[in-house]
Design a protein that fits this description.
The protein is an all-alpha fold. It has one domain. The protein is 64% helix and 0% strand. The chain contains 4 helices and no strands. The longest helix is centred in the middle third of the chain and has 17 residues. It is extended and about 50 Å long.
C-alpha cells in the first residue's frame, strides 16, 4: 500500500468521525510526534495563520447546520 493511499484513507476516515474521537486521535498524534522528536508545525503558526484556520473551520462548505431567525434571536440577548 502506497503512503499517499494510506494518507488519503486516513483523511476520509477522519472526516467521518465525531469531534471527540478526532480530538483523541490528535492527542495521540502529538504523543507519537513528541516521542519521535518531531515538532508540531502549527506550534509556530502566526496569529494570522490561526485566524485563517479558525475561519476556514467555521465556514466549511460541508456543514449542513441551518438556523432560523427565531432561534438566533432566542440565543442573542443584547
Amino acid at each position: 500500500m502506497a503512503t499517499m493511499t494510506l494518507r488519503e484513507q486516513l483523511y476520509r476516515q477522519l472526516d467521518k468521525l465525531p469531534d471527540d474521537v478526532v480530538a483523541q486521535i490528535a492527542d495521540f498524534t502529538l504523543f507519537v510526534m513528541a516521542r519521535k522528536q518531531i515538532s508540531a508545525n502549527y506550534a509556530e503558526w502566526s496569529h494570522g495563520q490561526w485566524e485563517y484556520f479558525g475561519l476556514e473551520q467555521l465556514f466549511r462548505e460541508d456543514d449542513e447546520v441551518t438556523y432560523a431567525l427565531d432561534e438566533a434571536e432566542e440565543i442573542y440577548q443584547p
